[in-house]
Design goal:
mainly beta; 8-stranded parallel beta barrel; 5-stranded antiparallel β-sheet; 14 helices
Length: 893
């Protein structure tokens, strides 16, 4: 572009729809193709007639931004150089109070000029304490780069703007002016080639009005702009928009460093650089990106889950689960420019249409229109709604987004209507996303659509001024046994990343809350439950932002949010068993100090109680419950005899699971203890011969006991035979420490022996129904197996024969349990030292020897035998047997 005047340029090619769909993978393409440009027009009104609003609410005024082609723009009185006359606009007299605003995020709202001063929807109705930035919408630019003197500019130059700026600045809120390019693509290309005219005029207006910066709102699809005056300057509108931001930054900085510069971009623009905006290039010039994350209901039509061939109603700004959604958009912007420059733009309006019948994503059967927040919120009370038909729903395809849609039968138009819009529940989810992703903030199109709705302002304060939610959990989960280390952890949803937490506890039986851990940045409270009484405890966690002392208070203190819903039950695990040891072990002589020690298992805090049953007396409490596991028994003066002790155990937090109140216990162990006046036998060991603890029926076996601790032991032997139900005396008390057991005729099986012993000077210190003893040992087991005891071998002829003679070796076993024993025949040839197996085990007692061809000499035969019920009780390297006979010699000549 050359010269100081406006350069006229020719329009380049517009991307055809098919090409746009193929190349531009961003939502704004479809916004442009399927819906009006995001900020080009206000939402048409929904008919909400009521007593206060007897007729349809007109849309807030916004005139078209393009002057007649070729006509001078009526801004004051302009010369061709763009300078203004001496007419001076009104100027704000209130400087920005930078310390007044306490928001933790930027809250950016567009303010349309037509209703800016309206006390119901304009700035007098807004809560500036919950705002950061207001963007006056808008000053328009015509094709030659000059500002348009339309109705917007009239408001811009009025006392209404002054009132807005003064009010905003008093609350620490910035006011910026939105600059909007021509709607016509050709005119917009022209305007972008003429920014040397636009920027000085706009900076002059910023300075004159005392506002705080500029918001750029140039929209449209990617276009090649041709400069017919200087073709070397041909560029896409993407490049020209980036250059505009660059030069605007320089112009603002030259006027006064610190002016704020933001730009409005589409929700998918950060996905790549093939669209109208090159987000990465713009990033170096602007302070923030207002992401117009709305009109996605149009953009999402051809994609799952909608897949709609004609317009179907859907969330205007879905959170997730749609092709275009807030979460994906914010993730993409954060990756390119960082979350600190990203503002999530949200709609204060919704989409409405007639439908055949209410259903999520119903197809529109008539014209699709828009409704402001105020209009949408008022529908439920409108007389146009057929009674009983109004219903509130939440989008089923994105449950986490809780996108609201309403349905009702509209009497005024005679159809079912369906409306998707964002209430404070839906918006709160987006605010939470802003906090979770640590974005710069949230913004709205437009503040006029919400006006003074208290719920909107309260929601902003909740999410961006103070902690607004609090989650609490305990690990391990309730219940837990007393003594378990429990950690109670809070998760605060707060604007500040380091909020303060205070933990309170309400104990079982208490009448008031007690502070468990005062305010600190520690989000966890480590609860020591040792010694705590069993029962259900209640925790309350308070949180407040680090920048305040709490927005709510009561007699106990202040907080932003609290959660008193954490209940935790402490239980006592009963003792499962108790074992006992004594020192010295029983028996002991009268006068010996005895220590009885219990050891409980299965419980964390056991208590022990000791009981004693003396000879001939009742049970008596020896030592009441205490944490001491030992009882020191003084035996002096106690009579000799057999005492019985019982050690009870229960957990400290348990009243006991058994017994009769007040004598309760979880577990117990009872055992005898003997006091003597003599030296009793303390133990007895037992052995058997043969040592293998196994023998064949008929073999002699000797069981031997060996007493210790007594000078003159007497022994008694008991036997428990296979299949028996009781013990029998095998050898009565005597001084003999051995019992010679005759196994002849005994049934095969496992026999168990018990050896009792007592000193000859006493009759025994323990007794049962079978007798008395000092000590016993019942651990000797002995196995008797059936088997053949002998085998006789003969030959026929008896001892000699000539070579070739048939010889028969005969065997005859004896002592076998089974009448059909098994025989095996072995032969030792003349001159050999190795036996040869000539006939393996079988029931045949005969071996027929063919001597033909055999060498002359003396041969020796051995016959093995074992009972059919076993495999042999004797084993060597050649095999197993019960008995054998190797005495048969036979001579061949």
């Amino acid at each position: 572009m050359t010269g100081a005047g406006s350069a006229r340029v020719a329009w380049g090619a517009v991307l055809p729809r098919a090409w746009a769909q193929a190349l531009c993978l961003t939502p704004f393409v479809f916004q442009l193709l399927l819906a009006p440009t995001a900020h080009a027009s206000e939402p048409p009104a929904v008919h909400v007639a009521n007593a206060a609003n007897p007729s349809p609410t007109p849309a807030p005024d916004q005139s078209q931004p393009v002057a007649a082609r070729g006509a001078d723009a009526p801004v004051a009185s302009r010369t061709r150089s763009g300078s203004t006359s001496t007419a001076q606009p009104l100027q704000s007299s209130t400087p920005l109070n930078a310390t007044a605003n306490t928001l933790r995020r930027e809250v950016f709202g567009f303010a349309t000029s037509g209703s800016l001063g309206d006390p119901n929807v304009g700035y007098p109705s807004w809560n500036f304490n919950d705002l950061s930035t207001v963007a006056f919408f808008a000053i328009h630019v015509q094709y030659d780069g000059q500002l348009v003197g339309d109705s917007n500019f009239t408001v811009w130059s009025s006392s209404t703007l002054t009132g807005l700026v003064n009010t905003a600045h008093a609350h620490g809120v910035k006011v910026v002016v939105t600059i909007v390019g021509p709607n016509n693509p050709v005119d917009q290309c022209d305007a972008l080639y003429n920014t040397k005219t636009t920027i000085p005029e706009l900076v002059n207006q910023v300075t004159l009005k005392g506002v705080d910066g500029v918001n750029i709102d140039y929209e449209g699809q990617l276009t090649q702009c041709q400069n017919i005056i200087d073709p070397t300057l041909n560029a896409t509108n993407q490049t020209l928009t980036t250059n505009f931001a660059r030069d605007m930054r320089a112009g603002l900085d030259a006027a006064k460093p610190g002016y704020y510069l933001s730009i409005d971009t589409y929700s998918g623009s950060a996905a790549g650089n093939d669209g109208r905006f090159n987000i990465g290039d713009l990033n170096q010039y602007v302070d923030s990106f207002f992401v117009m994350a709305y009109d996605m209901d149009y953009a999402n039509q051809p994609y799952a889950p909608l897949n709609c061939s004609s317009f179907c109603l859907a969330p205007v700004s879905p959170l997730t689960n749609y092709y275009w959604n807030d979460t994906t958009s914010m993730t993409q912007y954060s990756a390119v420019v960082g979350p600190g420059k990203t503002i999530l733009g949200q709609p204060y309006y919704g989409t409405v249409a007639c439908v055949a019948s209410p259903a999520d994503h119903a197809t529109a059967t008539g014209r699709v229109v828009s409704a402001t927040y105020l209009e949408a919120a008022a529908v439920s009370s409108s007389p146009d709604v057929q009674p009983g038909t109004f219903a509130i729903h939440r989008d089923e395809n994105d449950p986490t987004g809780v996108d609201r849609w309403d349905s009702w039968y509209d009497l005024s138009v005679g159809c079912w209507r369906e409306m998707h819009w964002s209430d404070t529940v839906t918006l709160g989810v987006r605010y939470n996303l802003v906090n979770q992703m640590n974005l710069r903030g949230v913004g709205f199109w437009t503040l006029n659509y919400g006006g003074g709705s208290g719920e909107l302002w309260s929601s902003l304060a909740t999410y961006f001024k103070s902690c607004y939610a609090l989650g609490v959990n305990a690990q391990p989960a309730s219940p837990a046994v007393v003594g378990t280390a429990v950690t109670v952890t809070a998760t605060g949803a707060c604007p500040d990343p380091n909020p303060l937490y205070e933990f309170w506890i309400f104990a079982p039986g208490a009448t008031s809350w007690a502070v468990a851990q005062p305010y600190s940045t520690n989000a966890s409270f480590n609860w020591n439950t040792s010694g705590k009484p069993v029962g259900t405890y209640r925790f309350s966690v308070w949180v407040h932002d680090a920048s305040n002392t709490g927005v709510f208070n009561n007699s106990l203190g202040s907080y932003d949010a609290f959660n008193a819903g954490q209940f935790f039950t402490l239980t006592s695990t009963p003792c499962s068993t108790v074992s006992v040891t004594t020192a010295p072990p029983s028996p002991a002589t009268v006068g010996t100090p005895v220590t009885i020690t219990g050891s409980a298992s299965g419980c964390s805090n056991p208590l022990y109680e000791f009981w004693i049953l003396p000879p001939g007396g009742p049970w008596a409490l020896a030592h009441a419950y205490s944490s001491s596991p030992t009882f020191n028994w003084t035996t002096s003066g106690h009579p000799a005899g057999s005492y019985l002790f019982s050690v009870w155990a229960r957990d400290a937090g348990s009243p006991g699971t058994s017994g009769t109140n007040p004598n309760m216990y979880d577990a117990f162990s009872a055992f005898p203890f003997a006091l003597t006046t003599t030296t009793p036998c303390s133990a007895v060991s037992v052995s058997a011969s043969p040592l293998s603890a196994a023998a064949m029926v008929g073999s002699p076996v000797t069981i031997t006991g060996s007493a210790s601790g007594c000078p003159n032991p007497l022994y008694e032997f008991w036997i428990f035979t296979p299949g028996a139900s009781s013990w029998t005396v095998a050898q009565a008390y005597s001084t003999s420490a051995s019992f010679n057991w005759t196994t002849t005729g005994k049934p095969a099986g496992i026999y168990r022996f018990s050896v009792w012993v007592h000193d000859a000077s006493s009759t025994g210190i323990y007794s049962n129904s079978l007798g008395i003893y000092d000590a016993f040992n019942a651990g000797q087991f002995f196995t008797i197996t059936p088997g053949c005891t002998a085998v006789i071998v003969s030959a026929s002829p008896s001892s000699s024969a000539t070579v070739g003679t048939a010889v028969t070796i005969n065997a005859n076993a004896s002592g076998c349990l089974n009448p059909n024993p098994l025989y095996e025949f072995w032969m030792l040839t003349p001159g050999s030292s190795t036996w040869q197996l000539v006939q393996p085990y079988s029931t045949s007692a005969t071996f027929t020897w063919n001597t033909a061809g055999k060498s002359a000499g003396t041969y020796r035969f051995s016959v093995w035998v074992h009972d059919a019920s076993n495999s042999g009780v004797v084993t060597n390297s050649l095999g197993s047997y019960d008995a054998f006979n190797a005495g048969q010699f036979f001579t061949l000549s």
